[in-house]
Amino acid sequence: MKNDIILAGVGGQGILSIAAAIGLAAVKNNLHIKQSEVHGMSQRGGDVQSHLRLSDKPIASDLIPKGKADLILSVEPMEALRYLPFLSKDGWLVTNITPFNNIPDYPGLEDILKQIKSFPNHIAIDADTIAKQAGSSRSSNIVMLGAASPFLDIPFERLEDGIRQLFGKKGEELVNTNLKALKAGRDFTEKNR
Amino acid sequence: MEKLLLLGDEAIAQGAIDGGLSGIYAYPGTPSTEIMEFVQGSKQAEELSIHRTWSANEKTAMEAALGMSYAGKRAMVCFKHVGLNVAADAFVNASITGVNGGLIVVSADDPSMHSSQNEQDSRFYAKFSLIPILEPSNQQEAYEMAYYGFELSEKLNVPVMLRITTRLAHSRAGVQRSQVKKQNQLHLPSDPRQFVLLPAIARKNYKKLLGMQPSMDIESEKSTFNTFINGSDKKLGVIAAGLAYNYLMENYIDGKNPNPILKICQYPLPHKQVADLYNQCDSLLILEDGAPMIEEMMKGFLNLGKPIHGRLDGTLPRDGELNPNIVAKALGMAIQEGQEVPEVVKNRPPSLCQGCGHRDVFEDLNEVLKEYGTGRVFSDIGCYTLAALPPFNSVNSCVDMGASITMAIGAADAGLIPAVSVIGDSTFTHSGMTGLLDAVNKNAPITVIISDNSTTGMTGGQDSAATGRLFEICQGIGVHPDHLKIITPLKKNHEENVRIIREELEYKGLSVIIPQRECIQTFARRKKAEKNESN
Ligand SMILES: Cc1ncc(C[n+]2csc(CCOP(=O)(O)OP(=O)(O)O)c2C)c(N)n1
Fold first, then answer.
1. Which residues of A are less than 8 Å from B114 in CB distance?
2. Contact status, residue B350 vs residue A41, Cβ threshold 8 Å
3. DSSP sequence for A96-128
4. Which domain holds residue A34?
5. What is the ipTM of this complex?
6. Residue B124 pLDDT exceeds 90
7. Residue in B381, B405, B519 to alter for ligand 1 test, most ligand atoms within 8 A of Cβ
8. Domains of chain A: total
9. pLDDT tens digits, residue range A91-101?
10. All domains of chain B, ordered by start, with CATH?
11. Which of B5, B114, B171 sits opposite A41 (nearest CB)?
12. Is the overall model pTM greater than 0.90, yes or no?
């Protein structure tokens, strides 16, 4: 078993929390994990990505080879497309559709969505709205994790444990909001895949 | 003991703590920053009273670590590759003094320049300083090398370099810990003159260092970090150093390699192992995540031996970090890329945060500079360097920390008057203060703007060495009080700030303007922490 995942977004959007939640769950599941992330300069509003690799066998490279990713999980629609060279033929593209517009030449959303929808294996989800419904717009990244969860070889309960561990220090309320967000994301994918 | 999920940086920190560390010294710099941050956040380090405060720059950090080693305790110093340039005087001479307590120098290289001005390879420094290098290929080795590095350093009586690159520094994996070792007792060097590098003593020490080289080679030969993995196809042998080993193995299904491989993670290069590989293969491929150092050594100047492939003959790109695909190509394997990046995808460069005080500084400055024309802003290294990009387009240089003031002096000497220097608070105390003294001494016709956000912003908001004391420092260095101004960079002060900057640019001598406003990121974090506390 292997899951090679590219997490994509813009600096400050919280992709590292997604990575951390999956990481905690994977460790509990006794999987091997390597997760490379971007710190430094590009965190200042630039494009950021994380390569997250899970396997039941030891993993060699910290970077996923091109054409080998099973999943691109993006919290921003244009960023979802930046890593297409990494996606394998039958890989899934799971992305939020709310744009993060901090550049002067940001393309039209329609053009981006057209590209995304040209993939047979795609989930395009309005994570920001679903997060708001779940209780906090700040947990849209966890909605995205939920939306991607059916494609991970990790039991859903383990991901819930990961969320509990990650947000436990910050209080019961935040844990529950994020658990709701996680479930809402998952439900969306199960209905729409 | 339990397995921890750690970044390469964090693995080094944990390995050092468990290996008997008494003090860590560092100046922030991507990708090395998280080593110190981990030790600062570690309960264990607190209980063990390990020294762990930021230093003003890499040189002061290196020297403090050497002082701790002199006193018999185990010390670590960490910085990014260009930090080693700043620390170089201390670093190179520390190989001549040798150590008393174990001393590990961590230098984090940044091939592909993700967050740096260059991609220099730190291994060259260790090579000409004649000391061993440890170069982990994964997080577990990073832990073990920090843990074992102190012992190696004490045994060979030299500092040991621990060299990593960005990908390992910022990649997480499971790490198995070892038994925690006790810290060394305070004890002085047995030779009281070991650290006195007067020429007569230095010559003696240097001969001793040269005499130690065979022992270092023996350590490399028997090191478990260097391993030979046999393969049946001897047409090609592969030397894979550090992280490059992973990229190589990624391409072999189930880890089965057709060609013989020598994995190098400890230097000096183990002579016998390298010679064995060379003798049994028709040609060699050298994989290094950095400059072609081993490759050059193997080729020699005249390149008269067997074919050596790598970065120098175009088998691999000459610059940039390696990855599994580049290595696959070098091995002649096919790559099946996914789809191309569609045209709708636009570049998204980093930019100054909304609400950042640096923005206001450049808006004010740009307005005044309209009257003088462009091309006179010497910047330094920090968030404010991003003002080189649109919409500001106002910065004309970024070279090395501290260079803004001194380059402005030289340009003014050449007749570019007024010249402007923009420098951050942390960069100013790192290496701007001495340059300011030069400017004071000749009353250089430059305007120095110390854009003070009370933090080391670019690297994530570490303490800045002289928060709240910049005005007094400039006074002390001798800046004339009439031309030393503090302003608050806010929209509502725009008119007034423009007036002050204009006045100082008109003055034909040295002025220092200190715009002061807290970094928006540390501000938000502080408010959040305060809110959490009051809850
Ligand atoms: C010799 C050296 N050490 C460290 C760095 C890494 N570095 C780049 S910017 C920076 C922070 C500068 O802080 P400051 O001058 O206060 O500016 P700010 O980012 O807060 O605006 C550091 C430490 C470097 N580039 N060179």
1. 38, 40-42
2. yes
3. E------STTPPPHHHHHHHHHTSSSEEEE-HH
4. 2-192
5. 0.94
6. yes
7. B381
8. 1
9. 999 999 999 99
10. 3-222 (3.40.50.970), 228-330 (3.40.50), 357-522 (3.40.50.970)
11. B114
12. yes
